[in-house]
Amino acid sequence: MEQPKIERMLHFITLLADKRGYTIDEIAEKLEISRRSAYRYIDTFKNARFIFSYDNGRYRLITNKGTMKELADTIWFTEEEAYVIKTLIDELDNTNGMKAGLMRKLTAISDMTNLGDFTYNKTYSLNVSRLAEAMKEHKKVMLKKYSSAHSNDTRDHIVEPFVFTSNSIDVWAFDTEDNKNKRFKITRINEVQVLDSNWENAANHNAELMDDFRTHGDGCYHIKLQMDRMAKDLLSEEYPLSEKHISEIDGSHWLYEADVYKLEGIGRFVMGLYEHIIILDGKELKDYIMSIIEKMINDFLGSNTKRNRGEEFEPDGFAD
After folding, report:
1. CA 311 to chain centre
2. Residue 1 confidence (pLDDT)
3. Most CB within 10 Å of its CB: which of 65, 90, 152, 249?
4. E-assigned strands of the chain?
5. How far apart are alpha carbons 177 and 161 in whole angstroms?
6. What is the pLDDT of residue 38?
7. For residues 256 and 249, is the Cβ–Cβ distance under 8 A?
8. How far is the CA of 166 from the CAs of 1, 92, 116, 162, 210, in angstroms?
9. 70-95 residue pLDDT tens
10. Hey, how many other C-beta atoms are within 10 angstroms of the C-beta on 274?
11. If you write DSSP's letter for every residue of 114-143 in order, what string do you get?
């Protein structure tokens, strides 16, 4: 990307973070671009999950707090996004004058560890914004009409939210009723209401670590996989954080070696590409996959037997 265009995009971010907001004509004039290009900039940043407000013909970026100048509150990067951005910048030649400048500007507007998610879905973005506000202010929130797949009910939860997951789909919070940390899916929250009461259980806040496959748990399993090019490419594309654990064996085979906290995530990946992957190390993973295969065979045989007898068959559902 040309340096003038990068500078215009950074100018655009700074401009739209202003509380007053700007019309399309004002944006075009200040950036010295056409009205069509101004609209294209807005669409580009929406696709990059920035949140915009449109009021009386004026656009502005929405932060998770009232101060529009706090640009670090406006630009959140997930761990995966931060890793991809840093990788792209690192690929620039050290003699390229933009490299240091880009890193300085990105560092200035985001610490690259502030986890959150941008979306222009109004309800979702509002819930994310309120959760982020509660985290900064150490306030409790009420998750109104939260739909739980595990308990199969919909009810309110009063919690202390303290961190988003690395893929920004969930939020870790301390449930004040059950007195334990839980992971809540943001899409299942009907509304987030920030309460006046402060945290009371900060010492007990603890988010379980997430592995490369976005799973968490109490276990720790050392895994070593040999992959062909197809499996390697799919792994790095679907799970960007795995790339730092991939090394080349030769021109057609790669090694993935890392610890995972739960077997479900990596198990699904390996089973979906079993012809392209060899498990070199990971007895627990092999046992887990074998147990799933045996269950599938029994379920399939059972369903066929019941159908042959004319009985109704309802397959077991996977755990949510």
Report:
1. 44
2. 47
3. 65
4. 52-55, 58-61, 139-148, 153-164, 170-175, 180-185, 191-198, 221-228, 246-248, 253-260, 277-281
5. 14
6. 86
7. no
8. 28, 26, 8, 13, 7
9. 444 445 555 566 666 666 666 665 54
10. 12
11. --------HHHHHHHHHHHHHHHHTEEEEE
C-alpha separations of 26 from 41, 68, 124 in Å? 13, 18, 29
Chain CA centroid to CA 234, Å: 18
In three-state form (DSSP H/G/I as H, E/B as E, the rest C), the secondary structure along 27-43 is HHHHHCCCHHHHHHHHH
212: nearest Cα among 243, 234, 186: 243
The rounded distance, in Å, linking the Cα atoms of 29 and 4 is: 16
- Evaluated on CA atoms 60, 64, 70, 71, the torsion sign reads negative
First to last CA, the chain: 42
d(CA 144, CA 45): 30
User: Is 168 within 8 Å of 115 (Cβ atoms)?
Assistant: yes
Q: How far is CA 316 from CA 57, 302, 303, 309, in A?
A: 53, 11, 11, 19
| Residue 153, SS3 per DSSP | strand
Per the CB < 8 A criterion, the answer to whether 31 and 9 are in contact is: no
User: Taking the model in full, what pTM does it have?
Assistant: 0.49
What span, in angstroms and rounded, lies between the C-alpha atoms of 255 and 246? 6
pLDDT per residue as tens digits for the range 112-129: 433 333 333 567 778 888
- The rounded distance, in Å, linking the Cα atoms of 315 and 306 is 11
Structure tokens at 57: 């013909």
Q: Which residue shows structure tokens 């449930």?
A: 175
> What is the per-residue pLDDT across 229-263, written as a single tens digit (0 to 9) for each?
999 999 988 888 888 899 999 989 999 999 999 99
Q: How far apart are CA 53 and CA 51, in angstroms?
A: 7
> Which stretches of the chain score pLDDT less than 50?
1, 64-74, 95, 108, 111-120, 313-320
- Single out the residue of 157, 158, 116, 117 nearest to residue 136, CA to CA: 116
